[in-house]
Design a protein that fits this description.
alpha/beta; three-stranded mixed beta sheet; 50% helix; single chain; six-stranded mixed beta sheet; globular; 270 residues
């Protein structure tokens, strides 16, 4: 694996631990972050030994969002021509959206483990994950409204499907902070833990359960769930019928059935 500037990446027992590694800057998302996350998730997608991903932040906070120095550098590129400025900004925004699309479109399940601040762009990031978990000190905020802008990297598109339209509008319009109890109640997180140690222990345990399953079955399940965000039920049923016409021929099905009949734990190839 490559050495990264904004991340550390480790692989153990089928679980890739991707950790934002800028603790001194509250894991703010600098230029290295936006570039490297695409590379990392391409590697994850291409590596059969990776079965599930845990995404976390080093130190006290998950992430304080986009690094203000990055915003300043983009602002310094703007000139006097409105049309060319718009072209530049649109290109930058689409590139950043692509970074989190890489997380969303990854074939492997991605579990976010959140402690401390999860603000602005960090909300965009966890919205692209499959599941979210947090410690009791977690604080979530769609902060872009307080910067005089609309969130533009995925929160407004993905979060309504997670917490519902009306509540998303309230949080996006006000920028108010959501703490762990409310985050659990509204479905922003699946589960809360007392502290960061318990959080990581719990999330890695869940990741381990997923890693033990058939990777073919997990990938197919994720693909079907993602497909249904944008399609009708009958479209989804047609798609899963076509998908499983191939995937039900996998050796994993025979392994799972034999293990079930003999009360053994199945072991699946990558």
């Amino acid at each position: 694996m490559t050495d990264y500037q904004a991340f550390t990446v480790a692989l153990d027992a089928g679980i890739a631990h991707v950790q934002i590694n800028r603790a001194a800057k509250a894991n703010a998302m600098n230029a290295d972050f936006w570039r490297e996350i695409v590379e990392i998730f391409q590697w994850i997608d291409d590596t059969d030994a990776v079965r599930v991903v845990v995404l976390s932040g080093a130190g006290k906070h998950f992430s304080a969002g986009i690094d203000l120095a990055l915003l300043a550098s983009v602002a310094s590129e703007l000139g006097k021509d409105v049309g060319r400025n718009a072209r530049l900004l649109r290109r930058k925004i689409l590139q950043m959206q692509g970074s989190f699309n890489a997380v969303d479109q990854c074939r492997k399940p991605v579990l976010a483990a959140v402690q401390g601040y999860c603000i602005g762009g960090a909300i965009d990031l966890i919205a692209a994950c499959d599941m979210r978990y947090c410690s009791e000190d977690a604080q979530f905020s769609i902060k872009e409204i307080d910067m005089g802008m609309a969130a533009d990297v995925g929160t407004l598109q993905r979060l309504p499907r997670i917490i519902g339209d009306g509540l998303l509008r309230e949080l996006a319009y006000t920028g108010r902070t959501v703490e762990h109890e409310e985050a659990l109640r509204i479905g922003l997180v699946n589960r809360t833990y007392e502290n960061i140690e318990a959080l990581h222990k719990g999330v890695f345990a869940i990741a381990g359960q997923i890693a033990a399953k058939s990777p073919i079955a997990v990938a197919g399940t994720k693909r079907m769930i993602s497909y249904m965000r944008d399609h009708r039920i009958d479209d989804g049923l047609e798609y899963i019928a076509t998908w499983n016409a191939a995937m039900l021929q996998s050796h994993d099905l025979r392994v799972a059935m034999a293990a079930s009949m003999s009360a053994q734990t199945p072991v699946f190839d990558d």
